[in-house]
Specification:
single chain; four-stranded antiparallel sheet; 2 domains
């Protein structure tokens, strides 16, 4: 009696399934490795900054030099003045650990003066770290432009209310681009006009659509109207030319900014 043994290999479909499963497992392993690798690099950066802080504090307490020992970090570079000064960069007085990949890693900083270490997600947030009065919300700046003359006026409409400012000073007829060539007493009419409007806005205690107070302030030839809302304020501005329509009628330059709330580092990156 003969026994016939037949060897049967994988079918094409089975082979494809095996390859797909292998690829998925490899991808999972690769992602897990990258995640672990990132954690290790972040931990190394945080540890290095803590050690820099400790060394700078010790040197300060014993009246030694205000320098720290440099270390080599993977995926980070250390930025400060004079290579290793505890006093930080000249632009913001911070010792900065700057990531090579800003998309994958946060910025870390040490503030020697205020004895603080922290984390920021971007260069923009890093540069605003020390601004305790950082503005967030809706900012509107309106500047006078063109040729303003006696009896001209501006009407600003905010929340459906009209606010009017009149030009009444004798020193008039000043173009915006000529202000630098004029004496100071010749350009005071600009802030006089805006103060008429800003004082009335603040007296009315207006609020935006989220209930935040709307404030107005004057700086030279411009008025600033702000609120904490992330939605634009409805502001209309119209100039009246007492001398009649011509090519040198009064005008405005407007600028509107929506400044978002400060973005914070995620918990995995914080100290």
């Amino acid at each position: 009696m003969k026994i016939k043994i037949t060897e049967k290999g994988f079918s094409l479909i089975e082979l494809i399934i095996v390859l797909i499963i292998t690829a998925i497992l490899a991808q999972i392993g690769f992602l897990s490795f990258n995640k672990l690798n990132r954690k290790i690099k972040v931990l190394a950066a945080k540890t290095a900054l803590i050690n820099i802080k400790k060394e700078c504090e010790v040197n300060r307490d014993i009246d030694a030099n205000t320098n720290f020992t440099l270390v080599d970090l993977d995926s980070y570079s250390i930025e400060t003045s004079n290579t290793n000064s505890c006093l930080g960069r000249s632009d913001n007085n911070l010792v900065v650990l700057k990531p090579d990949s800003k998309e994958d890693y946060p910025f870390y900083y040490y503030d020697f003066i205020n004895n603080e270490i922290g984390c920021e997600i971007s260069e923009v947030e890093l540069n605003s770290t020390q601004k305790k009065d950082r503005f967030e919300g809706n900012q509107n700046i309106i500047k006078l432009d063109g040729w303003w003359a006696r009896n001209d006026r501006a009407t600003l409409t905010l929340n459906g209310r009209n606010y009017v400012g009149y030009v009444t000073d004798y020193w008039l007829g000043v173009r915006n681009d000529d202000l630098d060539d004029r004496q100071s007493h010749q350009i005071k009419w600009g802030d006089k006009l805006w103060k008429q409007i800003s004082e009335r806005i603040n007296q009315d205690e207006l609020v935006d659509n989220q209930g935040n107070k709307i404030t107005a302030s004057v700086s030279g030839n411009q008025i600033m109207i702000n609120s904490k809302s992330q939605d634009p304020l409805d502001i209309k501005i119209v100039a009246y030319n007492d001398a009649g329509g011509n090519n040198t009628k009064p005008r405005f330059i407007r600028e509107q900014k929506i400044i978002p709330p400060k973005a914070e580092c995620s918990n995995q990156f914080r100290f």
